Amino acid sequence: MCSVSGAKDGSYKRIFQAVTARxxxxxxxxxxxxxxxxxxxxxxxxxxxxxxxxxADIDQLSIERLYEKYGSPASEPVIRFDGQPPExxxxxxxxxxxxxxxxxxxxxxxxxxxxxxxxxxxYRPSTESRYSSHAPMSFVPPEARFEPECGLSFSADIWTxxxxxxxxxxxxxxxxxxxxTPDDITAEQIDTRGNLxxxxxxxxxxxxxxxxxxGQPNEGRQVRSWEDRFEKHIQLPRxxxxxxxxxxxxxxxxxNMLRSMLSFEPxxxxxxxxxxxxxxxxxxxxxDFNKWxxxxxx
Length: 298
Known about the structure:
This is Protein kinase domain-containing protein. The chain is mainly alpha-helical.
């Protein structure tokens, strides 16, 4: 297996074909809807925990054919820092694992079966309170920062699910996290989704670093809107890679879906079941998923 993030890291283009992306997203949403229906919050949704399944015939490959298809494992000598020979109990060489993946754009629709993994942060809100998020910084829902005392619940998964969907659709994360601080991420969230709830805004000590008191960006600060991010993170990389993008109607539908999922107020976010009924799912994503499902078993 390789993760969705691993498939992107293995690609110069870092883009999935549109039909593949739609199928991946429906499968991911169905997985989240299922665990939520069982009263479980995943707690760490991101593309590193979404695994692309190996081809069904991999168990039938001979060792020779496996190496021919995926490459032979490389070995490295084990060398001590002090230059002394290893202890007798230490092997003289280490074997590096084969990467059983491929570049994201090379995954076809029939190959787009996923598995949601890593439930180490999962919990049941009915029996356990969770006051912090261990998701990657750019995925952390804002309530984990501004109202941790209220506890996290299913709506926190919806926020991180939206961030994951964005990356599956495009090339770059919705909120840039390279050399970023939590305050930088909050500013990006406001640039994208509008003003914070007043109670959070007043609590945010660093707000004047990015905005004036009325909530307008400080002079000279570069602000990237939702539309700008969609163009530069999703549409432009697709055009540059020669990969089909999203037409006007579909773009509007997927943006409406993501906007609702990224509501600052947790209680205003849709449930996973609600999202399955939205326009983008019904008109674009689920039809491609059904094409995949016709030839695959879930």
